[in-house]
Design a protein that fits this description.
The protein has 4 helices and 2 strands. With 86 residues, it is mainly α. It has a two-stranded antiparallel ribbon with strand order 1-2. 10% of the residues are buried.
Length: 86
């Protein structure tokens, strides 16, 4: 019984990760808003936002950008290129 109470009061372990992901999404959207005509490659976006440029981090951002394209916030004018939708 005590274990159930403790589990109910303890925030899930992934909560900080969700907050961090939301912050990264906001930074990405802000970058595209501040540079509306610029076409970004993922690595260029990472350098602008001072995010890690290792391959796993790049792949996570590539996935996030794909979601933003599917949501209609970004366009993909070429392979691996992203820009703000007009």
């Amino acid at each position: 019984m005590t274990r159930k109470v403790i589990d109910a009061l303890t925030p899930p372990d992934d909560e900080p990760a969700l907050a961090e992901a939301a912050t990264v999404y906001q930074r990405i959207v802000t970058a595209f808003t501040e540079h509306p005509g610029r076409v970004f490659r993922v690595r260029d976006l990472h350098e602008l936002l001072k995010l890690p440029t290792d391959e796993p981090s790049i792949n996570v951002t590539r996935s996030r950008l794909g979601r933003l394209v599917r949501q209609g916030l970004l366009d993909q004018p070429g392979r691996g290129q992203y820009q703000k939708r007009n």
